[in-house]
Amino acid sequence: MLKTGTTAPDFELAGPGGQHYTLSNLVSDGPLILYFYPADFTPGCTKEACAIRDIHDDIQATGLKVVGVSPQDGGSHERFAERYELPFLLLSDPDKLVTKAYGLDGPLGIGSRRGTFLIDENQVIQDAVLADIRIDKHVAFIEKAMALQT
């Protein structure tokens, strides 16, 4: 997993409707919470996404944005976001190139690990957490990031 103080690798990934997003564009108007998760519709990932959804208004009020990244395709992300009313962007990394660049490839290359980063406008990682099954650590991380913005 990438360490605090390092420059986050730029990327270009597809989002809803096939629109492409880059890290440099996502951070151009403020800091970003970038979280990686294994898969749409799994119990842990659903719990994590819904927990972030439930505090999303507070996240935005501090000037932060949230973006999720996983290997599923755009159609899966659109169904996942619609079903759980997720108000934030989900990006597709089907070849796990970005997941690997951020050091979150699963053991033996299988799956993806759960990691969350706070990235500033200069693409520098300000903080990060890795907790594969402790979803509450990711929500606590986001709450800490919000507190730092106020």
Distance between the termini: 27 Å
Gyration radius, in Å: 14 Å
Class derived from helix and strand content:
alpha/beta
Unreliable sequence segments: none
Strand elements, count: 7
Task: Report the portion of residues in β strands.
Answer: 15-25%
How would you spell out the order of helices and strands? Answer: EEHEHHEHEHEEH
Q: Please tell me what the overall shape is.
A: globular
Report on the biggest sheet: 5 strands, mixed
Q: Report the total helices.
A: 6
Helix content: 25-40%
Q: Which strand order spans the largest sheet, edge to edge or round the barrel?
A: 5-4-3-6-7
Mean pLDDT: 95
Q: What can you tell me about this protein's structure?
A:
- It is a single chain.
- With 150 residues, the protein is α/β, with parallel strands linked by helices.
- 35% of the residues lie in helices and 21% in strands.
- It contains six helices and seven strands.
- The chain has helices at 23-26, 43-54, 56-61, 74-83, 97-101, 135-149, and strands at residues 12-14, 20-22, 32-36, 65-70, 89-92, 115-119, 125-130.
